[in-house]
Structure formats: structure tokens, C-alpha cells
Amino acid sequence: MTAATRITVRGDDPYDVVVGTGVLAELPGLLGAGVRTVAVVHPAGLPELSRPVCAALEAAGYEVVSLPVPDGEDAKSVHVAAELWSAFGRYGVTRSDAVVGVGGGATTDLAGFAAATWLRGVQVVQVPTTLLAMVDAAVGGKTGINTPEGKNLVGSFHPPRGVLCDLATLTTVPRQDYVAGLAEIVKGGFIADPTILTLIEDDPAAARTPEGEHTRELIERKIQVKADVVGADLRESGLREILNYGHTLAHAIERVEDYRIRHGEAVAVGLVYAAELSHLDGRVGRDLVDRTRSILESVGLPTSYRREAWPQLRDHMRVDKKARGAVLRFVVLDGVASPARLENPSEELLEAAYQEVAR
Ligand SMILES: NC(=O)c1ccc[n+]([C@@H]2O[C@H](COP(=O)([O-])OP(=O)(O)OC[C@H]3O[C@@H](n4cnc5c(N)ncnc54)[C@H](O)[C@@H]3O)[C@@H](O)[C@H]2O)c1
Ligand SMILES: O=C(O)C(=O)C[C@@H](O)[C@H](O)[C@H](O)COP(=O)(O)O
Ligand SMILES: [Zn+2]
């Protein structure tokens, strides 16, 4: 066990992100007063993650309902959400009760969405167990599910009551899933915290493991970036869009792949595309694009995608949430830690940037 760090997310309903190793005992303290029943939503195939959570809650006197859901992205569907709503009804989850989401970002997105919609909103505490979920998905209150038309198209802003990141859970995360989480950390480096970039550049091999010398610092720095942004702009009326850097293309790739590519891997390609757009629009030098590619490749993330997919990708980008009518809007960079918006880029620019990531 290590001493816990508490990162506070400000806003109308502030909450803490608790980070440490062996910190599960902190979980009951994150629930609000008056909770009796806790519905624990978790991937069906990972009972070793949900069992200790349920046990800690039972030991603290809560009535615990264990609700297994499909693994990964398959959980983010209206059908699975409907099954959770039925279960909440059967087990009598009331407005004074709580949902706890345990798992990767897909599970916490679904659990948050189910909590946001049940009885028009019950409290949720997130217990992320992947790198990506700790540094991004579980923090900030964006919840969502996918529809046949695209990624996260249905959802709500529903901040958690608290977030518990037990770093001990990271030791079992498959290596490729762990590395995928680094894409969101690198994103945080480019939009806001350049120290993240130098920490990875100094020792990329260490960054790839939960045991790395700077792992905890990388995690806490990225959580701080996210906390600062969502604390100032929960509903993405402006500033929060910077967290979407790289995501316009990434979500289109995920849709084209029918979600059989990891979110973080698609984000890695999307980060290179956004850097290329920034360069071709005359905002940054080629060095920033090269640095983006080099840092992502140094940890084993992809930086290119199929050339022939462009027409399909372009079509899917239409439903990006930053679009306004037919006008596409991108987060780009004017430099490291200097995000900006690119509105209504020409088709030529969009395609020219894609040619640079195409293989
Ligand atoms: N809401 C947000 O702000 C936000 C931000 C970023 C990403 N996301 C979403 O997060 C999702 C991606 O999250 P992810 O990368 O965690 O993927 P994921 O949830 O699919 O998890 C990856 C895999 O790891 C398994 N797993 C989880 N914890 C484990 C553990 N401790 N040990 C072993 N296996 C474990 C999962 O069951 C899954 O098979 C996407 O749906 C993405 O859209 C949301
Ligand atoms: O928190 C945010 O805001 C983000 O954009 C973080 C992203 O990493 C995340 O993938 C998010 O779910 C994308 O949001 P969307 O609104 O484009 O679906
Ligand atoms: Zn993301």
C-alpha cells in the first residue's frame, strides 16, 4: 500500500480522484451519505476485479448487487444499458442509492450512462482498472454508448461522486491495452503538460509498464490535466474540446473497424493526423509532427492507417460532436501546450493530411 494522492476536480459538484496502490479501503468513503444499495457494474469475464470491490462494500455494510456486463466496447450498447435499467428496477435502486463502475473505460462509460439515466440520475463512483480509464475515461463525467451510426453518440455529462484508481489493478492489464492508454497520456502532454512528453521520451520502455519509474507521475499528471479542464468546462462549451485532440479521426477509425481496434490505438493515429493538419495549416513546424510520431512509435503505438479507407473515414467524421451543421471543427496545435481550433478546413487540406498518415 502507498499513501493516496487526492486530485480534486472542481466545479459545481467537486469530487476527488484518489490514486494509490492498495487503496480499495477508500471506496466506501467516496459514496454519499444515505446509500443503502450499491449496484456494481463490471465486465463478466473479470470477477477477480469486481469481487474485492463487492467485498469491501459489503464489509462497510452496503447491500451489494453484482451486475456483470459484456467485456470492452460490446458493453456500450443500448441493449446492455436496458439490461442494467431492468436490473436497477428489480433490485430497487433508488435515488439515494449508488452505481459503482469497475473496469476499463468501456465499462465506466456504460456504468456512468446507466447511472445518469436511471431515475434521471443516481450517483456513480468509478473504479477504473485500466491505464486509459484511470487517466481519462473515468474522470470528467462524460458517459456514453455507441449507436450503429457512430461512437458515443448517446450520452450525458454526469460527473462521478468520486474516482478510485488502485494502481495495483494495472499489473494484470494486457500489455497492448496498457500501451493503448499511453495515447491519452501523450495527448495530455501535447495539449497541456510538456513534462509528460519528456518523461516518456527519456525512458519509453519504462513508460510501457505499470512498474516504470515515472508511471505514477505520468498517471497523476494526466489526471491533473483532465481535472483542470473538466473542472472549468464540464459540458464542453469551449475549453473541454481540447481533450478531443486527435479524436475526430480516431472515432471514425473505430467505427470503420467496428470497434475491433483499441480506442487508444485509434487515438494514436488521430494524434498524428491532427499534428499533420496543424502543420499543413501553417501553425507548427514539421518537428512537432515528427515528435508526435516518434513518441508514439517509441512506446509501440500505431501512427498510420489504411490509405483506401479515406472516403469511409471522411463520411464518419460528419457525426463528430464538434461539428456544427456541415462544418467540421478540429482541435489543432499552435505549438506544444497551445491548442487551437481549425474550423471548416478545405477538403484538400483534410485529404492531404490523411495522405501523410496513410499506408
Ligand atoms: N468518458 C470519457 O471521457 C472517455 C475518455 C477516454 C476513453 N473513453 C472510452 O474508454 C473506452 C476505452 O477504455 P479502455 O482502453 O480501458 O478499454 P476497455 O474498457 O475495453 O478495456 C480494455 C480491456 O481490458 C480489460 N481489463 C480492464 N481492467 C483490467 C485489469 N485490471 N486486468 C485485466 N484486464 C482488464 C477489459 O475487460 C478489456 O478487455 C472506449 O470506449 C473509449 O471511448 C471514454
Ligand atoms: O473528456 C473529454 O471531453 C474527451 O474528449 C476525452 C476523450 O479522450 C474521450 O475519448 C471522449 O469519450 C471523447 O468524447 P466524444 O465527445 O468525442 O465522444
Ligand atoms: Zn479518448
Distance between termini?
Answer: 46 Å
Low-confidence residue ranges: none
| Shape verdict | globular
What would you give as the CATH superfamily of the largest domain?
Dehydroquinate synthase-like - alpha domain
- Major β-sheet, in short? 7 strands, mixed
Structural class: alpha/beta
| Rg calc | 20 Å
Biggest sheet strand order reads 1-2-9-6-5-3-4
Q: What's the domain count?
A: 2
Mean pLDDT: 98
The ordered string of helix (H) and strand (E) elements is EEHEHEHEHEHEEEHHHHHHHHEEH
Q: Number of helix segments?
A: 14
The helicity comes to 40-55%
In terms of DSSP E residues, the strand content is 15-25%
CATH overall fold name of the largest domain: Dehydroquinate synthase-like, alpha domain
- Ligands bound, unique: nicotinamide-adenine-dinucleotide, ligand LNCXM5UN, zinc ion
**In the CATH hierarchy, what is the class of the largest domain?**
Mainly Alpha
In the CATH hierarchy, the architecture of the largest domain is Up-down Bundle
EC number: 4.2.3.4
InterPro entries: Dehydroquinate_synthase (IPR050071), DHQ_synth_AroB (IPR016037), DHQ_synth_fam (IPR030963), DHQS/DOIS_N (IPR030960), DHQS_C (IPR056179)
Pfam family, one: DHQ_synthase
Cofactor: NAD(+); Co(2+); Zn(2+)
